[in-house]
Each structure stands twice: as C-alpha cells, then as structure tokens.
Amino acid sequence: MVKDLRTQAVELKLHRLQKLQAAAWNLTHVQPFFPSLEQLFKTEKLTAMSEYGVKLPEEIDSVVDANHIKTTKGQTVEVHRKTTMILSPFKTMKGEYSALSLPKPAETAKGYSEQMQSPHTAAYVGALASVVLSECQHFPRVYGVYAAMATKHEMDISDDYEDLCDRKWFVDNIGKTFELRLRSMGGETFTHTRGRRAAVQVEDDEINIDTEDIDADHVDEPNSSGVVEEYEIPTDSECTDEDEDDDVDVFDIESCTCEDDEEEGEEEEGEPFAWATFSDVPVVTTVMEKCTGTFYDLLKTSDDPERHTAWVAQIVFALAYAQRSFGFVHNDLHGNNVMYVPTTEEFLYYKHHGVVYRVPTFGVLIKIIDFDRAAFSVRLTGMKEPRFFLSSQFRGDEEAAGQYNVEPFYTSTHPRIPLNPSFDLARFASAVFWDLFPNGPKEETTHPLFELFKHWTSLPDGSSVIFRKKGDNHDRYHGFDLYKAITRYLKESGVPRRELGKFGQFVGAAPLTASVLVIAD
C-alpha cells in the first residue's frame, strides 16, 4: 500500500430497513443494498438481502417531497440527492445495452453484468465513500443510500456537449436512447426528441449484523512494490487536437507548446445548458444534507487572505483525516466539489501527533463532496485486511483511464501507476489558482496561499504542472492530461498530513469541552 494512505478500524453495521416509497423522486423498486456491501459483511445467511443497508445515525423515515425528508428522529430536513447511473451513460446513449430486461449478445451481457454487480462500479464507490466519510464533519451527513430504477433521470452533459456533437451516434440516437434538452442563449429550454433530431447541428451529457472477517473475493490494496518507473519528468511536447481514435494510448500525456502566448487558466464554470434524460435506468441515489454553496462562491464573498487560508486549512485537515483513516484519494477535487454550510462554531480543532490546531471558521464549515471517482479502503473492526475500492471510471474504456494503472484495472503492457496521495491538493490548487491570482505565477502578493499553491503544483525540477516552462500564463496541460501529469510527476508535493505544519499560525489549545478531529495520535 502507498505509505501515506493508511486505514483505521471503523464500526459499521448492517440492518434491515423499511421499504421506502420514493415516487416523489421518480424512483421505483427502491432497495438499500448494493454490491459493495458484500465485500464488507458476511451476508450469505441473510434472507431478503435487498432490504439490508448500512445503519446510519439518522435515517429516512419517509419522503416528504422532492427536496425534503422526515427522519427517524422526527425532523423534517431539506436534502440534496446525488443520483448516479449504474450503467455507463454514454454507452447507454449509444444503445449498447439495448432493452435492459432482454437477452443480449455475450460480450454485451458480460459488460452489463460486470457494471451492475462489480463493487468497483463508480455509482457504488461514490455511495460507499459518502457513508464511511459522513461521520467526519467535513463531509456531508448522509441519511440513506438506495439503488433503484429511475423512471426519469436527467444528467447535465454541458461539459461534454461539444465533443458529443461530433459523434454521429449521439445525433442518431436522440429520441431513441435518450432525450436532449438545451437552453438557448435567451434562457428558454427546448427538448429534442426523435422527431426533432434534425434541429441539432453537428459542430466543431433493525436487525444488526455484526461484521466479521470473510473469505469474499476482493482486490488487494495497490502497493508501490514492483513499480516500473518508466515515466520521467516530461519535456513539453506539441499540443494537438485529439480525434476519436481507437488507437490512442490513454496513458499518453501531451503538454502544450503552441505559439499562442495569450493568458488562459481554469475555465470559469458556466451555466449548464445541455441535459440528457434517460427513462427506466438503474441508479444509486445518496440522500445527504444540503450545502449552501461552492468554494468558488466563497471566494466571491471575501478577498481576505486570512479567511482564504483558514478555509483551505479545513480542506487540508479533512483530506489528512480521510487519507489516514481510509487511504482515501478523491481524484477530482476542484472548487465545485468543495462546498460549505454555515456554522456558529468560532473555531475548529484538530490534533496531529500531539499538536493541536485551532482554526477560525469565519462562519463557514467546509464540506467535500462527489466521490464517484474515488479510491479508498475500508477496514471494519475484526477485519485482518482492509477492502479496497477503486472507481470503475479508471477502467481502460472509461473517462479517467490512464491516470492510474493498478488492480483491478491493471494493464500489464504499461508501467504500474500507484495511487498518489499528493493528487487532491495539487488538483485543487490548479483549479482555483487563477481565481485567487489572476496575474499568474509572477504576481506580486503576500497572500499565504500563493507560495503554498505553487509548491503543491511544482515538479522536482522546479517547473509547474499549471504553467509552461517558458514562463507565460498559458496552461501547460489541457483537459485530462493535467490529471495524468499530476499523478505521475507530483508524488511528494502535496501530501496532506505533511502539509499540516505549514499552518503553524493555527497551533493552539482546545477547550476541554471542544470536539477535536484527531488525524493521528
């Protein structure tokens, strides 16, 4: 196992839940069971396994409406539901799965079954991560996780829309395997169905079960032994536009050396404008507390470096806890996946190897969300070895292919690429750097985060994954090449627990009655 990714024994129990009526959420055949649970609990003696789920401190008693639930503690609370398709959305669009309940060609059936039953399916990984992390204040409180059939499921495809429109199958299948809804420049929306495909132009979507160690099949945690170090610090290569080519090696990385010196940075998140709607598809929905806004929203409320630093400190402590307790790497930590809720607590307290940190909140409690691309391990009390979960998004034909090369998606024809505990802080810094420092790496500032962000994103040779070696404000890597570059070249720059000492201004003492998050004793 990667040395900075460790696990602590945790208590989780299964119990039988009452049937949930979720018509208000467009869900039928709702069940709390999903396959990842079989990796953690001994279930073969249970009947009606589909009715069992992880026991949570406060659960759903009933659905009030689309946005509210009544809990088992009698409270009516506003919630957010993260709903993820179990099957690949783009393969569903292509029509690869055909009618879900009908016979399929052998290869299609194999892929369908694997996606439905694998404990590593992204929807299941995201749901399980939400559950195990929810006991920590820096992750949303979870009230329930359910697999179900969605009569209607809408998915924002704005980020992928331009690329999808270049695919003939996308246009051909509008109104067949999905419906397309677009927002015009004037703000109105229009739904494209089968009869209106021509309007889309192709241009340049309570019984408690004790846990015990079991002999279930599982994937060993990846380790760094035997790693073939063939990936070296790169020299910038020519940036070219990628075509849809089956021969493209997903492990390749291209850096940008185009002649354009115009400044650029992380693209500002625009308003969603394209949605795909699917009918009667299997999903997993995680019901959690509703957050107030994103880290980008926070930056708009204040230009105070002291506040920015305190909020980022919360992120670092949260990641340090998750890495030391669950060997957790988020793998997609940008400003929209860091959210917040208001808090009346003036300070938050953390402890690491005897040192107590007293971090001011300025009324903000940071919450990290969205774990569909996560990697983590869970070791329940009584287990000899933890169970490892890696999102199926890292499979060779999925969207994050090429970032890692470890089991269960290891490709023997390429060097092993282990999990990187520096990834999350480097990715976060690269995502928000331009928002805080619009003049780039040569900006004259005393902001405490400026040098910290540069350190998290710097290679051993002193160059940056954000900026080109020529020193202009042009991105060195575009798109997913940035993710792959961070993973391979920034192995030591931003390990959260090693960065805690850089927040020495917050070292202090905790009141006897204070709640203290312990990173490591």
UniProtKB/TrEMBL annotation:
<protein>
    <recommendedName>
        <fullName>Protein kinase domain-containing protein</fullName>
    </recommendedName>
</protein>
<dbReference type="InterPro" id="IPR011009">
    <property type="entry name" value="Kinase-like_dom_sf"/>
</dbReference>
